Amino acid sequence: MSKTRYLVTGGAGFIGSHVAKTLAAAGHEVIVLDNLSTGRRANLDDATGRIELVEGSITDLETVESCCRGVDCVFHQAALPSVPRSVVDPLASDEHNVGGTLRVFWGAHRQGVRRVVFAASSSVYGDTIELPKHEGMPVRPLSPYAVNKCVGEMYGAVFNNLYGLSTIGLRYFNVFGPHQDPQSQYAAVVPKFITSFLDGQAPVIHGDGTQSRDFTFVENVVEANLAACAAPGTAGGRSYNIALGGRITVTDLCLKIRALVGSEAEPQYDAARAGDVKHSQADISLAREHLGYAGKVDLDEGLRRTVDWYRTRAQAGGGGKACS
Ligand SMILES: NC(=O)c1ccc[n+]([C@@H]2O[C@H](COP(=O)([O-])OP(=O)(O)OC[C@H]3O[C@@H](n4cnc5c(N)ncnc54)[C@H](O)[C@@H]3O)[C@@H](O)[C@H]2O)c1
User: Fold this and answer.
1) What is the pTM of this model?
2) Is 14 near ligand 1, meaning CB less than 6 Å away?
3) Phi first, then psi: what are they for 284, rounded to 5°?
């Protein structure tokens, strides 16, 4: 890629910071628009001076438009990214995930942005018996968050077809990696399990642990975003599964992490969470075909790198729960 200007919404968050830092490391101009609600400035610390952080909200059209000026592609990652949070407060989820997303598309269109690559979600499929899940299946959202993501995809398709703004949705399946926040009550299982074991505590599994997921290392998601940015116009107006194409139960994942950390703590089981799906596994052939996505880092390698990162952080003095 030659030097280009990019906007990453939610770029101080877990996935967005990896996307922003990868673009900056390749020598591009990168603007991050983030309201720091779940994101952290510290996630961009190692790229200080190479990334411009605008503290503001995607719900404010003026701010979005000013961030879109001169931008080639927007990587739209900002959202309130949690199923349980959306069950507790569906209005807030809608405001950020639907209203905010519409403003990102509208602002990008008005500023002549070429393409918006946006974070969709595997949650749109709901609980399907058929596995792996493929893009030809109907959406069946089970939570307000999943509804938000469906609406975002629909707006994306409409902007692609009606306004000529090229849009590509990426349906991420359970992403994990360094910088994921283990502290929030809505945190994802991988950082929660790792930090619990590092702290010598037993992690809590919601449900009976037989639920399964297609866990995907964050570098694969960065790869997918860059591939989507570069894909031909014919790839636009639709969404693609981004995962590894495998699946592991939450109990087996927990035991893998326990072995990597070297802990002997026994996981504890608690009530299942409302709105969660039972099984999730992606068919990634469409992303391979249209975007050239490969998913280069496998589960074991991704887990090893993630555990190493949290262990290093803990040894640096922050304890297992340290996260930047
Ligand atoms: N992590 C996953 O497994 C996963 C799976 C499917 C989809 N996604 C989607 O990927 C994207 C990134 O998720 P993440 O895991 O990095 O979460 P995250 O919470 O770390 O990142 C989201 C970022 O968006 C910011 N943000 C929230 N509302 C905003 C607003 N109104 N204006 C500006 N910034 C705002 C937050 O401060 C945060 O930095 C989200 O859209 C999420 O829904 C994530």
Assistant:
1) 0.95
2) yes
3) -105, 20
